[in-house]
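Lecture notes, part 5. Sequence design as translation. It can be helpful to think of inverse folding as translation between two languages: the language of shapes and the language of residues. The source text, in structure tokens, appears below.
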């Protein structure tokens, strides 16, 4: 007797939500899942997606989709409603993949993690770069990096501007760096600038870790070109990863008896792969096997907490330099703690109140 297919759905049919639905539809063709449907507050958009795919039904709310019978769902709605959408689904026994950033506040993230744990639900966070074939191909080579430098630059678009560039773009690299370094962040300094929105659009952060590693992280959503690169320096190698071009340059030290140490490089060939498809198949596997997801809620929380610390550091710098900043820039940066990036610590919360 064939095993029952995992019943899946998607909440949110914006740019990324449509891709989730397309991947699930392909997985249905492979016999892995059954796409029950997609939901959107604008049901016409949901209907457009299911009509194109020829699979599933359109729903006007996450609740209606859940009532149709679900095992698992992708929550691909604006960040500020992640918690509002995901928690009731978890409480109804539906496993959830919540897109990054996991939540707006740490309290929301903690509540989702606690709810999933209490009810025995799978909770995965959509940190897509974990599933990038470039990153997966290099993962086993990364050992104790002592300096990391990343650049994530994008041209301006309306998508994602409900949050600042830290939560929109930089959080991808914060997650990867936390995974690669695997040490506590002990100091954060940062600077940020609003350009085209009322939030920080360009940011740079310097992170210092307890093990001595330093990371320099830059993100911009108002660039004239796209770039997604990260470089890692460790005692036996230097690695330059280009997510966009899907290539990795590795420079290694070699030692031969009787000769001084030498360095030599190679360009690694990375097999083509679909990061989103890999992510969703990983999620479905966790649902089927009831195993810990590759990116659990706790990892999403760590990246979110560090993103908040970067926002707090930008706010702190603005406080020190407010008299030298242009008035409109000062107004935005000094409002970070209450609007774009909530304070990460209880002390910050008390000060705000």
């Amino acid at each position: 007797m064939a095993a029952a297919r995992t019943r899946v759905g998607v909440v949110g049919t914006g740019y990324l939500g449509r891709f989730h639905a397309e991947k699930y539809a392909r997985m249905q063709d492979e016999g892995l899942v059954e796409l029950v449907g997609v939901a959107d507050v604008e049901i016409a958009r949901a209907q457009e997606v299911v009509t194109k795919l020829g699979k599933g039904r359109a729903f006007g709310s996450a609740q209606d989709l859940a009532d149709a019978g679900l095992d698992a769902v992708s929550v691909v709605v604006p960040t500020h409603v992640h918690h509002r959408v995901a928690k009731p689904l978890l409480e109804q026994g539906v496993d959830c993949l919540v897109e990054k950033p996991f939540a707006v506040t740490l309290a929301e993230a903690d509540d989702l993690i606690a709810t999933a744990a209490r009810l025995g639900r799978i909770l995965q966070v959509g940190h897509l770069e974990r599933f990038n074939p470039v990153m997966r191909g290099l993962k086993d080579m990364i050992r104790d990096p002592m300096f990391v430098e990343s650049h994530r630059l994008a041209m301006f678009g309306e998508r994602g501007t409900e949050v600042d560039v830290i939560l929109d773009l930089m959080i991808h690299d914060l997650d990867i760096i936390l995974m690669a370094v695997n040490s506590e962040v002990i100091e954060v300094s940062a600077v940020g600038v609003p350009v085209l929105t009322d939030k920080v659009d360009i940011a740079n952060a310097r992170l210092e870790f307890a093990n001595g590693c330093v990371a320099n992280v830059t993100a911009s959503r108002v660039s004239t070109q796209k770039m997604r690169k990260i470089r890692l320096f460790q005692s036996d190698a230097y690695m330059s990863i280009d997510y966009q071009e899907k290539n990795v340059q590795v420079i290694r030290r070699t030692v031969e008896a009787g000769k001084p140490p030498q360095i030599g490089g190679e360009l690694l060939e990375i097999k083509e792969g679909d990061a989103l498809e890999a992510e969703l198949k990983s999620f479905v596997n966790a649902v089927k096997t009831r195993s810990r997801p590759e990116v659990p809620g706790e990892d999403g929380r760590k990246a979110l907490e560090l993103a908040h610390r970067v926002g707090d550091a930008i706010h702190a710098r603005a406080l020190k330099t407010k008299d030298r900043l242009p008035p409109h820039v000062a107004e935005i940066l000094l409002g970070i703690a209450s609007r774009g990036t909530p304070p990460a610590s209880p002390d910050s919360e008390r000060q705000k109140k």
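The translated text above is only one of many valid answers, since several sequences can fold into similar shapes. The CA atoms of residues 161 and 291 lie 34 Å apart.
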